[in-house]
Amino acid sequence: MLWTRQRLEEAARTELGKVKLIIVANREPYVHVYDGNEIRWKKPAGGLTVALCPVMQACHGTWVAHGSGSADAAVVDEHDRVAVPPDNPSYSLRRVWLTKEEEDGYYLGFSNDTLWPLCHLAHTRPVFDPDYWNHYRTVNQKFADAVLDELTDEPCLVFVQDYHFALLPGLLRQAHPDLVIIQFWHIPWPNFEMFRICPWARPILEGMLGNDLLGFHIRGHCSNFLDCAVRILGADVDSQHAAVLYQGRRTLVQPHPISVDPNHLRFPEATLSETARQLRSELGIGDRQLLVGVDRIDYTKGIPERLQGVDWLLRKKPELKEKFQFLQVGAPSRTSIESYRRLNEEIRQLAQQINDRHATENWKPIVLVAQQFSAEQIAAIYRTADACVVTSLHDGMNLVAKEFVAARADEQGVLVLSRFTGAADELTDALLVNPYDVEELANALYHALTMPASEQQTRMRSLRQQVQEHNVFRWAGELLAEGARLVQRRQWHKDGVQQLRTEQTSAVETRT
């Protein structure tokens, strides 16, 4: 039976029962902002909110997050809580406040200028700034204090999200040894040789081993983590159960590949056709074949490499001039970080050079759109494209690949996918490429542009079945089921210990 939003909600009620669920994430599921003198709310886009909001609504838990909206502080109570969703409240959002200095040091600094490049093999040097580290520790402690304040006498499950909170599980464990904590790490985990260069490798590992369960996208990232725990901490590994044994505690390390909601980009066919027609007209694409890339502008995504692939294709197949265009959609991100500023300029200059080399009077091969598109526009782009090109140099999963597949209800289109994504382990009917091999990439682009409709349908049917069966609701359901079992076992143990103590006390009183 397929996992759906409804099945996930029912599983949350059944599996968690009277267990209080606390989710910790840097990003909040609802943001309050000022619009003139009025306060309005918005729901940020993202697979995490799509997957976990139904769970929270079903079990009435608490979501702990950084309060980032301009009006966030105006709507919380004296305990920094606000009931959400705003239009139908069913769970609590606990906001944590950060100073500008803390946010810059913890988020832009240690999280995205240290851990992000450290964990991605994209040849960008991590910045090891002690001030970043100090802010990261401070913010992790702030979140730990907020979580501890939300605990009650009932059994609790704390579900920590991502690399922003490597230290949080350890802090919670020190304060509350019996608490059940699970964490999902949404980016890759590097090998030992890479991770060992981090000056704070040991406290990061020790913090993460405060978890009862630690999830990664693929088994290879689990193996890397186990190896780091052994070689840096001297921990033992229970290979049969994929668990780390350290300082008397046991942490399960499991692969749980995340996915998308297959219906997220579902719109009426007439709407998609009209939006696609408008976009093709506005961007000057007309009825030409279309290759698309849809990314946040990041050095891990291999955007310069895919542009070079287009260049190489046109050099080797000049007869394709004016027959297709490559559209790169993506808003600049983290531009306060120097490596991101350089990347944006590199992409702009490279696109200009390739266009200068191959353009004709009425055509240029590459169209850059440096802005955020709506969900409807993205769905229309996916549906009108002949191929989606995902050339990440290293990616924990890459949900763009899965979104493209989910959007192709017509069972047409081709996915060109980097072998260095977690998605490549699942989407094996894509055209898999090494993005560093410009000739292989160009050949794959040519294959995509010339693939018969029958082959497209065969491949896309297989890809769609994979995405539909292994969707984001299944990811959340399986992780929460694991967490619920851990809570149950912990409760059995506590009840057994309490029963034994009661019996021992009774025996002593009887003898007395």
Looking at this protein, list some descriptive labels.
about 500 residues; alpha/beta; Rossmann fold; 2 domains; six-stranded parallel beta sheet; 17 helices; 18 strands; about 45% helix; globular
Question: Care to describe what's here?
Answer:
This protein has 512 residues and is an alpha/beta fold. It has two domains: 245 residues, 3-Layer(aba) Sandwich (Rossmann fold), CATH 3.40.50; 201 residues, Glycogen Phosphorylase B (Rossmann fold). 47% of the residues lie in helices and 17% in strands. The chain has 17 helices and 18 strands. The chain has a ten-stranded mixed beta sheet with strand order 5-6-4-1-7-8-9-12-11-10, with helices on both faces. Strands 15-14-13-16-17-18 form a six-stranded parallel beta sheet, with helices on both faces. Strands 2-3 form a two-stranded antiparallel ribbon. A hairpin with a 2-residue loop joins strand 2 and strand 3. Helix 2 crosses helix 17 and helix 11 crosses helix 15. The longest helix is centred in the last third of the chain and has 40 residues. The radius of gyration is 25 Å and the shape is globular. The N and C termini lie far apart (60 Å). The model has no long low-confidence stretch (mean pLDDT 93).
